[in-house]
Amino acid sequence: MFDFILDQADNARPLHAVRPAELARLLQQLPPAQAGYLRNLGFSGKAREVQFLPGPDGVAGAVAGLGDDRSPFAFGHLARLLPEASSWALQPGDYDFSANVIVMGYTIAE
Does residue 74 sit in helix, strand or coil? Predict the structure, then answer.
């Protein structure tokens, strides 16, 4: 796994990885203010799209678009788009890390 994506750690923010076909489901699961925020921004779940979710103390989480790419390469953009020195807990979604793959120097594993 990427070194900035952790198991559910106390200070890790949730990171939702979503494909366009699953976006409506995610928007139903998010708090209404965050779902409305993503709708207002026109977030679509396309590849390499990242939006930060607002919270009472600043950034409460993030949503990353995967597009239709089903490979681990769909996550490659996160290393440069997520803030340095931040921790993220990848939330369940429509992706599979069952195969170990090396991408840009990171090992992606379950």
Answer: helix
